[in-house]
C-alpha cells in the first residue's frame, strides 16, 4: 500500500494555496522602495522638458544652487564630462540620460536636483531656467518617413532619416503565389494605440555608494535585477562584482520596470559624487509621460482566401512608432519582437511579414506590457483580420476559425514564419466557449433584437501565445542568453529555501515556487521559503517579464528539485543499506522496491546529508540549476464577448464574457484564475477607455488618470472562466505553459470584434481602440471607419 503524501494537502501542484506574500501585503507590511530610509539619505527630483522637439539654447542653474538644502544640480553638460550623458538601450541604440543638444520628446529629462528633501528638490527644479528653440515635431511613422521630415536622431553620425530598421520574415514568393490563386482578398488597416502599463507604484531607486568599500548598492523597482546590474556596470564603468541591486517588493510592473531609466543613472552618479544615499521616486505624471509605453503599431494586412473559407496566405506590414529612442526590451534577433507569431494557431500555407520601425518625438516605447514581445499586437491584428475575412466571405465567425485551426493530430506544427508549436486542442477550446456563451441562441436573439432597433454583437478571439523566451540558439538580450536559474537548499531539518533569478511583482512566486518543490520532493509548501531580487544572493537570471516565470524559472525550480532528489536517493540507499537501483520514490519518501514498508522520508535524508552521509559523498543537500528551454511554450485561449451598443450615444455594455484558457498544467488554480481576471480587466480597459495620444505639437494628451482611465470594480464586467481543457506542454518539466499574459493578449480583440459585429451591415469595418462612445457614435451615424491615430486635434 502506498504511503505517498497527499499532494493537495501538502500544497503541491493543483492546490489552490493562498498566496503567502499576501500576509504582509494586506496588512500594509510590504517593503517597497519608497519605504526604505537610509542614514543621511538625500532626495532627487527631475526637471522635464515641456516641449516635444526643441534645441536647448541655454540652461541656467544658478537660482537652483542658491536654494538652501540643495546639494547638487546635474545637467547633461555635467554628465557628458563623465561620459554619462548617453547610455546604451536594450536594443543596441543609445538614449540620452540628460539632454545636451536638444530635447526629443515632451517629458524628457533635462536636469535633476539633489536636496535634503523632495520638496526642496522640486522647488529647485522649478528655479532652473531653460531656453528652448522649438523644432518641427513628428508624432507618427507616416510623418517620420515623409519627404523633408526633420531627423530626430541627428546626434548619430550614421543616421540620415528617421528609420530605425526594415525587417522581414516569411516566404515572400510563396505568399505572392497564394494571392494569385485567391478567390477573395480581404484587407484591413488599423492602429493599435499606445498603452501605458500604469503600475500602482511608479519607478524609483535609492543609490548608496560606499567609498570605504567601493561598493554600490541600489534599491530599485526593477523586474530584472541582474540585467540592471550588468547595464550599470557598463554605463557607470564600475566592476560588476562591486554592484548590488536589490529589488524589494514591487507594486506592479507589467513590463514598465524592465528598462534602464535616466533617473536610475542620475541617482547613482549623485551618490558617488556626494557619498551619501540618494533616493529618486517618480511621480504619476512623470511615469505616464516618460516611461516605457507599449504598442503604437500600425497594420496593413491582407488575407488570400478560397471561396469555401480556406486561408491560402497572409501578407502583413507593420509600422512601429518607437519614440525618440529605440529602447525595446526584446530578443536581439527580432526587431519587431515576436510579431511573426501571428496566425500561429491557424494552418496557413504561406505568410510574409514586413516591419519598419521609426523614431518620433514621443517617449520611447516598445515595452512588453503584459505580453511576450509584441505578441499582443500580433494577436489583435490576427483576430481583427480573421473577423474581417469571415465577413468578406459571408461566413460564420466560429465556423471560419474551426475550418482553419491547426488540428490536434497535426502537432507538432511548424508555422509559416518558422515557429514550432508542440501541442493544443484549439477546436475543443472553441467548442467549450461557444457552448458556454449559448452561441446559437444568442445569434437568434441578435436577429430578433435587430428588428427592434437594438444592436447586439458577439466577438470571438482565439489565440496562442509564444511564452518562455527562449532557447539560447535564437534568444538573447544584449548578447545574454535567455536562460533562467534556481538555487535550492534543504536544511538538515527538512525545511528549504529557494532562490531564483526571476522577480515577482504580483505573479505569486513565493507561493507557486514552493508548490513546485513540494511536488518534486514532498516537502510541505509551508516549509519552503522563496527569495528573489537580490543580486548578491540570487543566482543569475533574466528577470520576470514576457510570461517567462513558469516556462523558464519555474522549470529551473523543478530541475534543481530533481537534482536534490537524485542526491537524496543516494542518501536513502545508504540509510536503507541497499543499492541505489533498489530504491523507489513516492511523494515524500524513498522505499525499498522489494520491501515497500522499509523507507525513509525526504526529511530523514536531509538530516543524513549533514550527519550520516556515505563515504566519499560531499555533505549538504543543495544545488543550482540553469534552465535553457528547448522551445517556447504555447498556451491557447478562446475569449467570447457579447455586447449591446446604444446607437444614440455610442455607449456599449458588455453582456457576458466567457474565457477558456488551456495553459497546460496549473500549479495553483486560484492564482491562475486571478491572472486571467486581471488580464481580462486590462483587455477591457484597452478596448474601452484607456486613451493616451499626442497632438500635432507632440503634447501628450491623456497623461493623467482623468483621461487614461483605470477600470474599477464598478466598470469591470463579470468574467466566466472555464478550465476543462488541459494540454500539458510535452517539453516542460511539469507540463506547464504559462498564463500571466494570455487574457491581456487575446482579450482586446474579443471586445472590439463584439462591437464590430453589432455594427455589421452599417459598412463600418474598423474603429481604432479605445472604442470611446464618441468614436462608436461617429461610426454609426456617418457609417464610416474611425481612426484614432495621432495627431489629435485639441482646439475643438
Give your account of this protein's structure.
With 796 residues, the protein is α+β, with helices and mostly antiparallel strands. It has 19 helices and 34 strands. A hairpin with a 5-residue loop joins β23 (484-490) and β24. α17 packs across α18. The longest helix has 28 residues, at 549-576. It is globular, with a radius of gyration of 28 Å. The model has no long low-confidence stretch (mean pLDDT 96).
Round the mean pLDDT to the nearest integer and report it: 96
Beta-strand proportion: 15-25%
Query: What is the molecular shape?
Result: globular
Which residues sit in consecutive blocks of at least 5 with pLDDT less than 50? Answer: none
Number of helices: 19
Q: Which labels suit this protein?
A:
796 residues; alpha+beta; 7-stranded mixed beta sheet; 19 helices; globular
Q: What's a concise summary of this model?
A:
The chain contains 19 helices and 34 strands. The longest helix is centred in the last third of the chain and has 28 residues. It has 796 residues and is α+β, with helices and mostly antiparallel strands.
List the topology elements.
Blueprint lengths: L21 H4 L16 E7 L5 E7 L1 H4 L4 E6 H5 L5 E3 L5 E3 L5 E2 L5 E7 L2 H9 L2 E6 L6 H4 L18 E8 L1 H9 L3 E12 L8 E7 L4 E6 L4 H12 L6 E4 L15 H13 L3 E4 L2 H7 L3 E12 L5 E11 L28 E9 L16 H19 L3 H8 L8 E2 L5 E2 L4 H12 L1 H13 L3 E10 L11 E2 L2 E2 L2 E7 L5 E5 L8 H13 L6 E4 L17 H28 L6 E4 L2 E4 L2 E7 H10 L10 E6 L8 E10 L6 E11 L6 H20 L4 E2 L5 E2 L18 E3 L19 H17 L14 H10 L14
Helix pairs in contact: 10-18, 14-15, 15-16, 17-18
